[in-house]
């Protein structure tokens, strides 16, 4: 899969220094893939991911940080289940960032984030992330503009530090449009097995759609760097979202070329009785 659809990684990456106008991005785009062909591609891609992570974990050398962001109902949980589900949980710590606790608020905003970054051999996944500190925090004026506006540079410096310390960073923005969000919210209301996901507060956030889009556009414009690129994933169609994320992850891990390590002791002639 890494080879057949390698162009997705190029097509969806936000080039450093460019400004993406999300109104010009089609969240239903499928980049030439079809739902029918995607099923087999995804199965193969996930098998590839399982193999790559097994080697990465065994080698214990590389650290990989995956950031998942998206407006409510964009599919962060589904991506975790369907794509990261290919990984052995032992080597794939997932951290979900919620409203900061009192203890977290007593520290700088990157404190809780830095403690959660992956160690050697791990693929650490952030379900929401430090970007909330320039998204929800900005949209709701939780801190003054003079404070949040300095965070883009701080985040770039933080991510550069991680990269300089051997961390490969991949950031996914799952992009759905407002109509799709309405349908997904409605489905949550209608389906008793999904209703628990719905909160009235979601509707308040939905009213601030344009503010969130503007905040995301600034994140993409200011924080997509060579060391830590953002990918905008058209996510109206779950199957394409899964395929694109799996594909980009596979290409990224493939490049690290993880290898099973040699045994640390001489095992020649060992006989097991
Ligand atoms: P999710 O929506 O991710 O499935 P929750 O329903 O628990 O999980 O929502 C987590 C909430 O925490 C979101 O509304 C998010 O905006 C909020 N949050 C995350 N990080 C921060 C932060 N740094 N400051 C304020 N709110 C935050």
Describe the structure using short key phrases.
273 residues; binds adenosine-5'-diphosphate; Rossmann fold; disordered N terminus; 5-stranded parallel β-sheet; alpha/beta
Tally of individual helices: 12
Distance between the first and last residues' Cα: 43 Å
Q: What is the alpha-carbon Rg in Å?
A: 20 Å
Bound molecules: adenosine-5'-diphosphate
CATH class: Alpha Beta
Quick one: how many beta strands?
5
Strand order of the largest sheet: 2-3-1-4-5
Outline type: globular
Helical amount:
40-55%
- Taken in chain order, the helices and strands follow as HHEHEHHEHHHEHHHEH
Q: How big a fraction of the residues is strand?
A: 5-15%
Q: Say which CATH homologous superfamily is assigned.
A: P-loop containing nucleotide triphosphate hydrolases
Instruction: Enumerate the spans where pLDDT stays under 50 for 5 or more consecutive residues.
Output: 1-6
* CATH topology annotation: Rossmann fold
Largest sheet: 5 strands, parallel
Task: Return the CATH architecture.
Answer: 3-Layer(aba) Sandwich
Structural class: alpha/beta
Report mean pLDDT, rounded to a whole number: 96
**Number of folding domains?**
1
